Amino acid sequence: MHINNITVFIEVFNEAHRLEACLKNFQWADELVVFVKKSSDSTYDIAKQNATHIYEVDYCEASENFVSNVMKHKSKEWCFFITASSLIDPDLAIEIEKLTNLASFNYDVIGLPYRMYVFGLTGPCSPWGADYKYPLIRRSALRLTDTLHHEIGWIGDSVYKINTGSTTGRFYHCTHSDPDDFFSRHMRYVKYEAKHYCSIYGNKAFRVAFIDFLRSIASVFFKKKSIWYGRNGIALSLAYVSYFLMRMIYVWFALRYCDHSYDEFRRASLDKWSRYSNVDD
To answer: Can you give the pTM of this predicted structure?
Structure first.
């Protein structure tokens, strides 16, 4: 199978442990473009072996350079954006091939049947995910931003959703293999998002972050209702809420506008002990 009008884009950093499987899932596309943030593991070598194009780019915390990186490469008609967590069924790839090669296909965005796994779990016990993902966009309709988790968008409303009745294939997102992976990634993301919130909302940033936190609680209890699905549901729901809690705390800390260093306090303490010692002598 070979598709002659799709470019797959992926940006990675230190993903040697899962990158090969991901890239091999998307080698059916005409172009597989990898942007490697300067990594300390074998990410670059793995990408070189499995991609059609590879660019080594400067490290950034999140998506600061996303737009400029993508614009470096003149893509095919369709742009397909994935992450190192992505996998895809062959059946779905075949369906994509049929659609994108139809001369009569006039849509600009293709919604893919989607399944997200967190800690190896999916379904009603998980507050994450949706039934569809929209990562496949015609170049002429593409709109990109550097905002974390909102990098990819499009102009207009010409969207086609692949019917789950026409294929058993799914586009998968397999993330957070264990708590270490979960919290290390979220620590990086929430710090970046907190800066973004403060730059956009100013002194209102904490209120916005607090409302987001309350909404996350409402979601796991009432919208997704994931917290009611036993031990798995409780654990995943708390993990989900923890992201918004951590972001809110980082926003609060950034807005304190004070010197929160303990250096002066330590110096004062040592000075007291010095005077105390002198008295004893």
So the answer is: 0.88
